[in-house]
Amino acid sequence: MRDLVRRVGAATPPDRDRAVDALRALAILGVVIGHWLVTALVADSGTVRGASPLRHMPQLAPVSWVFQTLAVFFLVGGQVGARSYASARARGETYGRWLGSRLGRLFRPVAAVLAVWAAATGVMLASGVGFETVHALGTLVLSPLWFLLVFAGLTAATPLVAGLPPLWPIAVVLHVDLVRFGLDDGTGRFEPLGWINVAAGWLVPYCLGAAWARGGLRGSRTGWVLLAGGAAATAGLVLFARYPASMVGVPGAAVSNLNPPTLAAVTFGLAQCGAALLLLGPLRRALRRPTAWAAVALVNLSAMTVFLWHQTAMMAVTAVGLLGGTALPGLHTVPAGPGWVLARLAWLPAFGVALLACWAVFRTYEQTGPGRGTLVREHRPERTTEARSA
Fold this sequence. Notes:
Radius of gyration: 21 Å
Strand order of the largest sheet: 1-2
Low-confidence stretches: 370-390
Mean pLDDT: 88
Number of domains: 1
Order of helices and strands: HHEEHHHHHHHHHHHHHHH
Structural class: mainly alpha
């Protein structure tokens, strides 16, 4: 372990802003743990179906406030993407080569998970597993991929949106919601407009990240304004405009804040971005410790593998548990009470072990190509006194 820590430290460029990597790692781990906590697979009459404890226990909505961390990922993505594109232009690299390199890091591991699950789906159907079960499992695997498609689209648009003020996409989200909800006559004819917010909503933190890359968002005042303003706006929308309190989708709910994103999801994301900016200083100090930095670096080197395979890991543990023939609490039972929550918390280490096994098998697909096993120079620290001393 000490040798690994030394090698990670030696491979890290001295000007790398380690706090940015820490924010990305926290965002990915937040999504993983959040999915494990709010996603249930219920074994019932020979089938397996999806469920959510948020439907049965709406008082758990604050859990989604902690673990729905996508805005932080898009904030870091905008910062890294804008800096990377600026560096590529300075080197004389073409847009096509730059984009191909960045998208390759996203979609090589995606191809692996799709191939494995295509084969698994065929095997399950051929062996007599019911379509409802196969559909439930496939949905859990494929549903997170929407996020990668949006991220890829915003990455491709980096030259166009890097200088866009975040107020413009916020205005788009606001007007879409005004039409979608304000003119709702019960027919749902305005619902398709909501999908405009899939791009506009996540463009807000992405543009904030690009502004950060240009040297904006400096000082703690910006972080506090985003945190306080975003939190106040979200509270107002939930309390007075009847937006859902949960920041993730809840099966059976009339409105989801996430699918597609609503104005409440965007303002909540602003608060998250403010909190992330306020964490930069403490993270930089913490990551001076070689062991802490090694852990963050290793998560980042396999971030896509962790994201793509975490639901498979949960399903593998669920399937193994079914071999005993008895529905296990927190694994196969309806998520309808505090007992389920306590049992699910006890299962998290098993999910982690299964994810570690998936990582050992499939991490090579993420680390294939130029820069394999290295830390790429994608971002530099803010030139504050604290950052220079770090």
